[in-house]
Every structure is written in structure tokens, then in C-alpha cells.
Amino acid sequence: MINTMYERFAHEYAIHAEDSAYNALYDRPAVLGLAGDVAGLSVFDAACGPGLYAAELLDRGARVTGCDASPTFVEMTSARTEGRADVRVHDLSRPLTWVRDGSCDLVVLALALHYIDDRVALLSELRRILAPRGALVISTEHPTMSWLRLGGSYFTQEPVEESLNPDRDWPIRAWRRPLTSICAEFRAAGFVIEELLEPRPVPEMADRYPEDHASLEALPAFIAFRLIPAAPR
Length: 233
Description:
Strand order of the largest sheet: 3-2-1-4-5-9-8
CATH topology: Rossmann fold
Shape: globular
Distance between the termini: 36 Å
């Protein structure tokens, strides 16, 4: 599903994400900040997209593997990282059969969880590949943002078809759900929240994208989490 969505506009999206306000100056700083010091760590970049996170993780000293459902994105990631990242085409709705149990110190899942129908199954699989002291860093759309944009009840849980960017024909299908449900999925998959972050825009955005900066200072568009495996009962 993600493959067919992003293949249509993969090249356009890659150009946009590299330098856009919401990607370059909002989500990536938030996700990489929650990732912390990755030097020497084995990092799995789930839904790697065009490789912008993978490249930064490598530059910070990590060993990076990963996947994306889009063949175009996987090609872009390989080119952007000059082959240093071991990435392959894979749909996250299926198990990561080639990744060993407990083999990853960190998993990054940026702006993709909301595309998955069975999110508990995916989160459980990501927990499987994490080392016992590992962490999962996730970003997703803030539930308040989807409620304000779509209307109805804040507590609605349903897939919604719309354009990823309102100014472009980039059709996607993503789930809207309240924060309670997001956190319940984490718990059902065996995680606890170590840190919850409602990102603030980086100062550079005020000069380059003043309208976006003002909007994001008033209301968060995304929400990010650092999750760790729950202690056995």
C-alpha cells in the first residue's frame, strides 16, 4: 500500500522533504534529537524514504540498515548514502524476516506509522528486533492536527484518504486516531514511553518560513516518542 502511494510522487517528495519546513526544520531535528548519540550503534531505519534520516545517522557514526516499500526510495537511499546503508524493498505490513532478534540498538520510524493498518503487529515486530536496552523513536501526525483539519469527533479512529500536501496531487491513505489509542498500541506491543515530544520549530525556520514557524509555535503538527521495551512481568 505504501509502495503504490509514494511511487507516484517519490521524486517530487524527495526534493520537497530535503529542505521543507516541516521535514528539514521540524521532524528530522525532533527525531534525531530523540535518537541521541548514535555513534557505534546499529540502527534500523524503518520506512527510510529517500534516505534523509539514514544519511544523517551514518554521518553521526551509526551503522544503518533499513527498508521502504517504495523501490524508488530504496534506490534514492542507496545513492544518498553511497551504499553505506544496507536497505531493501520491504512493506512494513509484513514481518522483517531477515532481521535477527535483538540485533538493533535503535529503530527509527519517522512519519509512517499512521499508514499501517495493523500497527500493533508492526510495533511488536520492531520490539522483536530491538536489543533489550534498545529504543524505538517514532514520529507521526499529532492527533489534534488531524482533528482540526478533518472535523468530527477527536476520538474517531478511521483511515482517511487525502493529499499528503494540500497544494499537490499526492494521494495517501492514513489513520486518524486519538492520543489514547496511540499510547494503547505502544503498550499492547510491549513498549513504555520514555519520552514524549511535541516538537517546536528550529529557529532557522523563523527566517526561511515565517508563516510555518508561527503556525508551529502555536500548534504542533507532529508528535514524537522515544519508546523502550517494557520490563517483563
